[in-house]
Design a protein that fits this description.
The protein is of the alpha/beta class and 575 residues long. The protein has a domain of 153 residues. The protein is 37% helix and 18% strand. The strands form five sheets. The protein has a six-stranded antiparallel beta sheet. Helix 1 crosses helix 6, helix 9 packs across helix 11 and helix 16 crosses helix 17. The radius of gyration is 25 Å and the shape is globular.
Amino acid sequence: MAHIGTLALRVIGPYQRKRFYAMCRSPADAQHRLLRAIIQRNADTVFGRRHGFRDIETFEDYRRRVPISSYEDLRPYIVAATQGEPNQLTTRAPLLFTTTSGTTGASKYIPMTREGRRDKSRLMRLWLYGLFRDHPGITSGRIMSVVSPEVESYTPNRVPCGAESGHTYRNLPRVVRWMYSAPYEVFTVRDYEAKYYALLRIAAGQDITCIVTPNPSTIVLLADRLAQHTEPIIRDVRDGSLSPDFGVPPEVRASLRLRPDPRRASELERAADMADGSLVPGLAWPNIAAIGCWKGGTVGSYLTKFHRYFPHRPPIRDLGYLATEVSGSVPLTDEGDGGVLAVATSVFEFLPEEHEPQGHDLLPAEQLEEGRRYYIYVTTASGLYRYDMNDIVEVAGFFENTPMIRFVQKGKGVVSFTGEKLYEVQVIAAVEEALAARRGRYHFIAAVAELVEETGRPRLVFLTEFDDPIGDDDGPALVDRLDRAVGGQNSEYQAKRKSGRYDPPIIRVVRSGEFDGYRRRMVEGGRADGQFKVLRLTSDTSFASEFKGERDIVGRDGQRVLRAVTGTDGERRGS
């Protein structure tokens, strides 16, 4: 049935691409038209009347009348909408309240209207058509994706609350639905391990030609589970079964209609033999033509593991700036992690990273400069107005006259105990530099900034899982390289270290599988699966307590500090 999806892309794709390209040539005009449409459509809402939408004619009018908003500012309108009160943020009632994946804190409920869903769907089809145009092999088989359940709860007036990814997946047009590997029902399985096993068992019986899921860590997880369950997966493919060892509900099992496939099982056995008895994705599915996932930002380091899983090195295309609140960009090539700003579907404003927002001084898209970083604010068809995304993006270039942006990090991924303003992206770059010799053989979880009780000074604790043991001689040198690398990324940190106002960092070796266990706990607790992520730099010391440490590795400078304070330089084991 893949040819049906191919036909759909060939018919719809060129028209949408032509229309989008035309808007990119005049981004200011596209943004003004879109803003006027959103304002006029929602002039009679509670929010619209309160902010004088009927009197807004220009972008400047909009900026003067409508303040920058946070989720807390919009919460009263959202709560009223969940109670069934009409015309709060939009004249069209939300058809879904999407829950944020969030990096910290409780979930937020973001309204999605029919217009908002339409806009996001158009962008996804544009992305998929571009991928198909460059890599037509993606439609010769099935696409494997990972989404979260569409419905996790209901509002008092029975509007579903859940994941946008699940909502989109369940509502795919029939001609497109055939392109995907697993039926939506698989993603409703609540048991974490059972869901992944079922997904992989179904895919193992198919010719997977594309993998699409936002976070590359999900692809790493799939690869690990594929290897872990090699024998039962091959047996299930041969027998047309689904192992009873996994808690997949009977109604889901019945819906899968699995059939015995000895020929495919033999192919998988040969693939496993090529990799020392364990299945790896690139050998199990040698026809994978492309992968779609995030390539940069705070999760790009996961791509260092891909060479182990995909020996034939398929092209990887970034999925763009995606969030529950907005689909913000469309990557058009495999190069880099930048995407063209989605000027046709949301209104964007920007604030230079170094400035404090005043509301009226945000910049429109046409005033951005290549190479500079900005905070991003969005106005959407679903009822977000000048909404602070708390994200930092960088202008990676221009397509036609429209900026191409890449996600850098969350705005809150910053610590500054002594005025150092150390950013998450700087820490990630330092880890990649210092641990380059262990490329693909470690998993950096996060750096936790804490105050050391004995000295009263801050230090960084790098929570890290290692595939190979760290020798007693190698450990201190590794910490020292990490310390220098952080200083190379941030001169203020370097100055504070030299002046003794910042204690030396430590590496906390975390037990193998701890991050996997944390992810499982969070997903089972309601965090979105495909977009799951954590802050890679935080001052929340309770986060470190989520992980069991085997030992703390102290650098040579750290050993000197310990001797001065406690008279010992021994490692602390267990935590």
